[in-house]
Amino acid sequence: MKFGISSLAWQSPFHDPMGQFEKAKKYGVDIYEIAAEDFSLINVEDILKAKEATGIGTPSVCGAFGETRDVSSDLPEYRKEGLQYIKDMVDLAAAIGGDTVVGPMYSACGKARAVSPEQKKQAWAWAVEYLQEAADYAKDKGIRLGIETLNRFETDFINTVDQAAELIDRIGRDNVGFMLDTFHLNIEETSIVGAIRRTGGKIYDIHACANTRGIPGEDHFDWPAMAAALKEVGYDDYCVIESFTPECEVLAKSASVWRPFAESPEAIAERGIPFLRKIFA
Questions:
Q1: Considering the entire predicted model, what is its pTM?
Q2: What pLDDT, on the 0 to 100 scale, is given for residue 255?
């Protein structure tokens, strides 16, 4: 298992690879997951130089799906922009030596509203259509897509592992699987362990944080049981701490980021990474 930190915990939008990767190395981080908020600030050459200098890996890129990056939107221009955004993330992942793109790529984060059965059916149809094209594009570049479930307050679309499984099945591509986030699982699943088992082992990434979105281990979770379930389904790839800096403008409102989740951004990795290493040892 490789243990990492999301750029959302320390810097938003991501723009300083060397400074971020040096900090990550200081706190014993194996991998750094880039949240692609603003591509104009992301320089691939700088990332590759920072990787070489620090030994920090960059296997995954996470999406920040604002209103205009929505493949199930009623607006065709938003659906097209959402598809292009996923393709751009795929290109970034491939360019920096990654193999996985993750996030709630079926809708915009924060779009949670009551809709008619007809509207829901159409949104599903659009999501499947556009994500099939995204998956085909990703496969040509050796990239997997991890579908993230979000809690009911952040989306009305995919809240549970069972719903995600249906979406993955309807997309019907072998490079599309699950990305699980402990924060969302805690809200929506009657059993986090049971949800992990129901993925059938097709998990591509884990976002680990406390039930408060703070430091893993400083919470009410049964981490040993979750670790055992992940081992049972054969998962041994990436475990990334995803917390949020209050400066995260793209996702702050939709993710309800109103205050810091730890006394300092550094404390998230300083205490969280050793805890996760111990739990998964």
A1: 0.95
A2: 65
